[in-house]
Please model this.
Amino acid sequence: MYKTAQENNVVLFEAFMTPYLPNFAILKDNLKNIGTIRKAFISYCQYSSRYPKYLNGENPNTFNPKFANGSAMDIGYYCLGATLELFGKPTSINATAHLLDSGVDGHGSVILTYDGFDVVVLHSKTSDSFIPSEIQGEKACLQIDMISVCNNVRKVERKEKVTNLSVPQEDNRMYYEAIAFAKQVSQNKIDEKAKTRSLLVAKVLTEIRRQTGVVYPDDA
Model:
């Protein structure tokens, strides 16, 4: 897709809002302020409003392999995309998942290994979670409410000293990616860094599906 876009002198932009949020920029900038990173926990678990339909025998697109869907490809994308934007390519990937009868994953876990630390990713469309994501350093940790939209970012130091690092964000969180897209269109130039991240996330998701056995009709 990127090759075709460049051959035709147009911009291809993946609609992934998280990296363009002001609070995500704050999160990224503060990684250097928490000491050597040792652990990270990135979670997005939200009971799907369409899951009861699936349980009642219907086949909503949310859980239908014909739509290349499932937990990892849907809300899990925010966890993986944010992790790879923050830390880059992992040295190893270990994934598990619970597959529904339709063939897609209802929930799952992924461990991404890096030099000196690992990132545990939890994603689910069949249960809710209300705890923040967290990046742990030797000096302090960063907590993030809802990694997808970065509602709040906090620095928590020893002796439970908490500093709120957040800034106000537009109610429509897609505003910032729209601005970035418009800028690329006006310049008629694809953001190479965003392109690299998009391709990396696609590769990681493909490996996760390989390990968990999620297969889509279009894979053939």
In short: The CA atoms of residues 2 and 12 lie 6 Å apart.
